[in-house]
Amino acid sequence: MKFTRRTLLKVTGLSAVAIAILPRMAFAARNSLRTVRTGVQPGNKTRLVIETASRPSYTISYPTNQLVITLANTSANTSLAPAMAAGTLVTAITQAQSGDKLQIIADLSRPINEIPRDNIMLLSPNGDNDYRLVIDFTGATGTATTAASATPAKTTKTTAGRKYVVVIDAGHGGKDPGCIGKGGTQEKTVVLSVAKKLKNQLDAAGFQTYLTRSNDTYLKLAQRAAIGEKKHADLFLSLHANANPSRAMQGFSIYTLSEKASDEEAAKLADAENAADKIDVSGFEQFDKDIRIALSSLQQHAVAEMSVEYANGVASAFKRAKIKQQPGPDVRHAPFAVLRSTVPGALLELGHLSNASEEKLLKSSAHQDKLVAAIVKSVKAYNFDV
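^ thats the sequence. predicted structure below, dont judge the formating
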């Protein structure tokens, strides 16, 4: 069995993620199919609802006159009778188990075009309902987009027509400048520039990317994390620039979320980054309440493992690009509020504005391009499908 990233339960907030790194097989948790039903929506749309016990990892393909939803790490429910509404495009629904994948095959009365992203919704548990994958579609008005088979080959950046989603968070912004170098360079300006360049490069590489901010705007940390959840991100990258009492300190450092900081410096950095919310005290109490909701042990370990996997990859990419590293371990851990979500992610300190020579580098377009190229390589190399 494989543990996929999208089987993690979606919650409105969470406690800190444990750092214990166990073998991937230890986190395998078989999802189960609860119900399948169809309905009619305004605009003559057919609605297909697939309900599962855990948040599903899914792909969609379009064989002729069929809609096939493949659920990773999910068991068939042979006793389940689909609830079929009259007046839809769906004429029959069957299940097919292939290893650890379950295919929900909907036979259609006519072809359909590839379903727009906005017509695919993943709803969290509510009342008596578990996780629901809701898909709305209509008959094709032009040439239908079809797939060669119900299980198309995967690529690094897309799976069955779905692009992997990366949310890029440019730290600080607005009334929160972040670190300020001796030459006056502000962290919020540097990281926004890098974030925009990174978005352009990842978009060109075939990923679907979103920025938490695209201008000089102040956002609370909970808002940034919530964007990753709302966009159903596969990866969350928070970009920052560091400062150190020692003007001689240089180099990048990479961090993931943990209950406890891996060292004193990581703890101080987390305190400094988390203090950004205190600039606007209004609503801070609500943020505290949201993040107290605890994840299961399974989720904690799984998100931690996936985050560390990426963090090690980006640290290696930086080093291969000859970007100077801060002395110490490749990856450190601390309770960063911006990383509190069910989305695997890392906080990237791109260098030290407190160091005069590195301040010049960080504000230079050439060095920013070098940083972006290394991050793009790390994202391309990341195994999204495990």
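Confidence is low (pLDDT under 50) at residues 1-28, 143-156, 278-299.
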